[in-house]
Amino acid sequence: xxxxxxxxxxxxxxxxxxxxxxxxxxxxxxxxxxxxxxxxxxxxxxxxxxxxxxxxxxxxxxxxxxxxxxxxxxxxxxxxxxxxxxxxxxxxxxxxxxxxxxxxxxxxxxxxxxxxxxxxxxxxxxxxxxxxxxxxxxxxxxxxxxxxxxxxxxxxxxxxxxxxxxxxxxxxxxxxxxxxxxxxxxxxxxxxxxxxxxxxxxxxxxxxxxxxxxxxxxxxxxxxxxxxxxxxxxxxxxxxxxxxxxxxxx
Length: 250
Fold this sequence. Notes:
Blueprint: H1 2-9, H2 12-27, H3 32-50, H4 58-69, H5 73-78, E1 93-99, H6 100-107, H7 116-126, H8 137-147, H9 153-156, H10 186-193, E2 204-209, H11 211-220, E3 242-245
Antiparallel strand pairs: 1-2, 1-3
């Protein structure tokens, strides 16, 4: 098992997962027996499939095996042993950090008709619009916004926003209190939040929700298990976690 864990820690995302896991175990909020079963099952599957294989990056493979073993959210949520109730009096924002793929996939639509003015402004860079590859539009639009200091994407793409506003299942919602040293630099923020669903070159986008709407959603459809997912929740790659942010007041 030690070799299995050492290989996991050789992968960047795997190392973040391991540090989160150790922190939860140290705090006594993670079920030890469930954690052992997850690792034993993952190691067994890895040994059966990859033990003798010459893998270029064994750590990444170990991490993917663990992702598959904990894909069921009942493992991630059910392994939690202590949870504090949300004090809504302290919650001022409900935010989630997503990449540009999630932004265009779930929150907004990138299409030439909806962003004609922006396209015309960058036409000199991309060439004739008649032969423009629309798959490149999303990245170009975000780069244009960034260069012009337009960081309020809801205002920029208001006509292209989709109807859905909450793409993370409500029983995966959790609240955290923002500390004064919350970093603004994207890479530092991702490391602080231990998010591994980002690849090099992707945009880091923060989506802010209406707090009252979230409270109503929870009230109207209360989850049976209203807890923060544990460190075993490695499928955040597809469903990023939500954090409720409190701005500290002196």
